Amino acid sequence: MTKIEKEKLRQSIRNLAVKISSGCKVQEGKDGRSYPCGTCFCAGLGNLVNEKREEYKEHNDKPDRINEVWRFLLQLRDEKY
User: Model's pTM, two decimal places?
Assistant: First the structure.
């Protein structure tokens, strides 16, 4: 994947994160762009999953989904090309 392709993908994911977060753009990344806060992003993702499905309950260790999502958002926001 080229640097330009990575940047386009990153921008698409950023736009999706803002959309999932109902337009939240209160955080700023190293790239100077606006990103949603972790609370809104996690809440938005929570609306997309069905916690009653068996797949949601499957995991190897005690799940810490909020931490995993937050770490992803931090990496997305702070990576600079």
Answer: 0.68
Print the domain residue range for 28.
3-78
Instruction: For residue 18, count other CB atoms closer than 10 A to its CB.
Output: 19
Start-end of H helices in 1-81: 3-20, 38-46, 54-57, 65-78
Domain count, the chain: 1
Give the DSSP letter of residue 66.
H
Return the closest-CA partner of residue 15 out of 1, 40, 38, 33.
33
Reduce the DSSP state of residue 35 to 3 states and report it: strand
CB contact at 8 A, 26 and 36: yes
Q: In this model, does residue 71 exceed pLDDT 90?
A: no
Residues whose CB falls within 8 Å of the CB of residue 49, separated by 6 or more in sequence, listed in order: 56
